[in-house]
Write a structure and sequence with these properties.
Helices cover 0% and strands 51% of the residues. Strands 2, 4, 5, 6, 9, 10 and 11 form a seven-stranded mixed sheet that branches. A hairpin with a 4-residue loop joins β5 and β6. The radius of gyration is 13 Å and the shape is globular.
Length: 121
């Protein structure tokens, strides 16, 4: 079975940085798109960033200029570098992917279990 495993979450003070990683296993093909969703307390789940196999990226307005997504398509691995973190970034961050198409709307075909990011003020 396909499995996505996130790592890198934790507690950080406002203004700090974290780097999230996601590695896929149980798959031999390259996902067309991979990315990160997050869900904060009392908030709707939202797409944070995505990247296609061809390198096209998309970011939520709230994180533009602060977060950077990158991937190794051949290895189905994706990273999210988060800088200048704000308390509003506190959420569970989920790695997700789609074999074909784009990461839009409710999300992808496969999901990780999530990693907690907590930003203190």
């Amino acid at each position: 079975q396909v499995q996505l495993v996130e790592s890198g979450g934790g507690l950080v003070q406002a203004g700090g940085s974290l780097r999230l990683s996601c590695a896929a296993s149980g798959v031999t093909y390259s996902f067309n798109a991979m990315g990160w969703y997050r869900q904060g307390p009392g908030k709707q789940r939202e797409l944070v960033a995505s990247i296609t196999r061809g390198g096209t990226t998309d970011y939520a307005d709230a994180v533009k200029g602060r977060f950077t997504i990158a991937r190794d398509g051949a290895r189905n691995t994706v990273w999210l570098q988060m800088n200048s973190l704000k308390p509003e970034d506190t959420a569970v961050y989920y790695c997700t992917s789609v074999r074909w198409g784009l990461l839009t709307g409710p999300g992808g075909d496969y999901w990780g279990r999530g990693t907690q990011v907590t930003v203190s003020s």
